[in-house]
Amino acid sequence: MYIDEIHRRFSEYLIPFSSLPISKGVVFTRSQCPQTNHEREEMAEFPYRNLLGCLSFLSGRTRPDISYAVNILSQYQNNPGKEHWKGLLRLLGYVKSTSFYQLNLSCFKPKIVAFSDSDFAACRDDRVSMGGQIIFIGQAPIVWRTFKEKCISLSTMEAEFIALTEAAKEMTWFDRILGECCDRKIIEVIKEKPTLYVDNLAAIDFVKSPVENHRSRHIDVKLFFIRDLVYKELFELKCEK
Q1: Phi and psi dihedrals of 44, rounded to 5?
Q2: Does 223 fall in a domain?
Q3: Are 46 and 79 spatial neighbours (Cβ–Cβ below 8 Å)?
């Protein structure tokens, strides 16, 4: 198993078992990066990028649950500090202790369902929010992604709105791929209108409201994009708490 192989490869280091990808209350910042040449030389002894690459490969194939942690820790790969290295080893410990987790592929209710979420002002270095999305066919996760948003949001609603925009773009792309690659009979089975769940009612109201607000001008292009998709009934927006 690939996870066992990674664990053996880095077994010379102390790998703590963990029940979470990132421990509660742990925050990573640039202030934890090496500041002197001596500190950088010390950190050069640790294969940070090698381990990060292994976990990133795993995250993109079968482990959506570590996607957020991998994205956070990858932001420090050019100059990682001891806390970042400890966080990476902790993540490896989590992966090892949950190696029995599986992605179950099922034909039960093969409808396309997506979820989007945002961590408002998550990055302590620049206060940019983190976004995430996952698309299911039935109960099987097919596409997932965690990303750092490209602009600074001024509210939780804005951060959630940007995340749902990215999820909608992904759903549009995914629908096109299905149309090109799948048999017509399969498409007919899963062609029920997709649902995109967002855990912020204000973001949904923002999309559906016809009233313009001067505070939203910097995201109005995304707004018209989403409104167009909703108007065409390409998917349904719902609030999921």
Answers
A1: -65, -20
A2: yes
A3: no
Look at the block and give the residue holding tokens 């629908």.
175
Does the pLDDT value for residue 215 go beyond 60? Answer: no
For 52, the token pair is 């990060």
Does one domain contain both 160 and 211? yes
Give me the residues paired with residue 198 across strands. Answer: 116, 239
DSSP 170: H
For the CA atoms of 43, 24, 147, 120, the dihedral, rounded to the nearest 10 degrees, stands at: -130
Tokens of 232: 């065409």
**Structure pTM?**
0.86
In a domain, 24, yes or no: yes
Domain range for 83 is 2-98
* Contact call for residues 121 and 96 (beta carbons, < 8 A): no
Residues 71 and 117 in one domain: no
As a whole number of angstroms, the longest Cα–Cα distance in the chain is 63
What is the CATH classification number for the domain harbouring 215?
A: 3.30.420.10
Per the CB < 8 A criterion, the answer to whether 120 and 151 are in contact is no
Q: Which residues contact 59 (CB under 8 A, 6 or more apart)?
A: 66, 67, 70
Size of the chain in residues? 241
Q: How far is CA 94 from CA 15, 17, 23, 100, 166, in A?
A: 9, 6, 10, 11, 28
pLDDT digits (tens, 9 = 90+) for 95-122: 999 998 877 776 666 788 999 999 998 8
